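Lab meeting notes turned into a lecture example. A postdoc, R.K., suggested we walk through two folding results consecutively so the class can see how the record format repeats. The first protein's sequence and structure tokens come next.
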Amino acid sequence: MKRFYRYIFSMFLMAFALVLIWNTHTAYAANQEEDTIVNGVFIDTVDISGMTVREAQAALKKHIEGLRSKSFALIIGDNTRVITMGELGFTYEANNHIKYAIGLGKSGNLIKRYKDNKDIEHGKKVYPLTYSYDEEKLRQIIEECAERYKVSPKNASFSRKDGEFHFTDHVLGSRMEVEPTYAIIKDKLDDWNRLDFVVHATMVDVEPQFTKESLKKSTSILGEYTTEYKSSSADRAANLANGARLINNALIYPGEEFSSYTYLLPFSMDNGYYVAGSYNAGRIEQSIGGGACQVTTTLYNAVLYSELEIVERSAHSMTVSYVDLAFDAAIAEGSKNFRFRNNTDMPILIEAFSNDRKITFRIWGHETRDDNRTIKFENKVIQEIAPPSTEKITKDPSRPTSYRKVTQSAKRGYTAELYKVIYENGVEISRELVNKSSYKAEPAHVTVGTKKN
């Protein structure tokens, strides 16, 4: 019987102990948020001693915000890009450090609590943080910087003056190497000491495509052509000289396009032009820049003999006197332009000059054509159109009725074709159509007086 009572009593004591433990745990959990952390406890470099859970959480948040505002400077040549940790998504991995810290010296059995307190007495307790950042974002920023701050090299250039070539040396460019720069920054971030830092990007020089030495290959005449303007007025002659001046020393690199508009426009007195005759709606009229078509026509023929790629060319509305049919190239602002592309492997230089009532275009470049190969251009008249017999009459009320003057002779119309003929060792091997041109027939223009006595 005594044994039974002892069993009942021991069960009672066990139940009492369990209730006591449960109540103690519940009370601890309820008061944990108001409890404070013992002295000497750190999370990373944040001293959370004496703080409540909420205070420790706020301190840790402030610490992370401070770290996210830290930055490093990426030096890219003469430029600097400042990158904050926040841009990289800098943060720390989830943990239970505060939960463990609040229980130091207070939870667990007597031995554990004693050991925790002794450990803190002999030195601070530090909970480390594991940080992370977006490596892809870092790479993206570096790639953007590489593209934004690259410095393109400058090709060497050359010109001609007084019959001699003058060369200007090339300028090196620079480029940031993405992978080595990324590796340097990543090494620093993976072992970051929480301080701002500076990284010098890995840079390499970029050579231009054409140096001064390589340009010395472009000193052969690929093609040249001359036309005369002996009967032109002084103003028209001045316009041709001005056109040659504006185009002279134009340098076109491989693949680039030459546009006459770029060099010759605007047709204005401020741009060196005078008033002279030009075609307009079947009539010769006085306009600023009259004669510019002879400039583009002469250049067109030099380009033909250089065998460069013609991009745009238009015939005149009526025939001209300074070249044969289909050899002309007109220019008219807004409607007709002469363009060609440098389809060679080296830069070409256009030399243009006028003297003794002649205008000449000479194209310099790298000659790669066979000496046994020659070219010739031949035109062929497909159709000839007689001018209308009915004259175009302009009445002048200031002149007497007896006055009559032919202001513009009748012009025949034509359709013509231009062919490029290639010879090897003097034997024709091909004949290629270059252009087909049409010229309007125009009756004589006559001015008559209408003033009565």
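The second example is placed directly after the first for contrast:
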Amino acid sequence: MSLSPLLVGAGLLVGLLYGLFGVGSAFATPLLALIGVPGMAAVVGPLPGLLPGSATGAWTYSRSGKVDWRVARAAAIGAVPAAILGALASRVVGGPVLLVASGVTLLTVGVRVLRPARRVDAAAAEAHQAACARRRANTLFVAFAAAGIGFLSGLLANGGGFLLVPLFLLALGLDMHKAAGTSLVVASTLTLPTLLTHAVIGDIDWTVAGFFALGLIPGVLAGSHLAPHLPTARLQRAFGALLVGFAVWFLVRQGLTIAG
């Protein structure tokens, strides 16, 4: 059976997740590997589609006023150069260890997002919001936090949304819609240098990338249009559950691969 329909279907699914939650690239590589795309082609195959996909989603969220542009600019300052370094390091760093580490990170973040908020008095809630506001206004804090995510994004050839969204949610206090929209803006800026670096190195299978992009872009459009009509709290819970479920599956799969 030709891989082409499966690649388009995988792109559509990842694009829908990307549009809804501002994440999706972290799910793309295991999904491509699952349908039979080998090695590095599965790692970097999503990149060409992620660039127009991220831009499409970012434009849709921006039109709805769901992007914090100050946070996006500060995050890009730290994340973009770090993404280039990560892409260059991808050939010399141990892949299996990094993949397991990313799975553990996904699981930790998912549990944190799902954890019910503790009941706090009005003064504590106000103090938390004030702390988030200070961090949002601190360009250095946002840039340094995003730099670590950018490096991992370049290393694993993804847009970094699976860590950007929790950063924006938990540390900077954005709501789920703004966290997703701002993540897509930053992911757009991260994907270009990562894509160019891997293209120069010669890692990209353009046939895989083309069919995947064919499904990804309409998927992002559909998810981006649907997301503003969903309740923020329910969307955040769905995001946390998705991260936890995927992380558990991914870690079990990686463990079996290493053991085999």
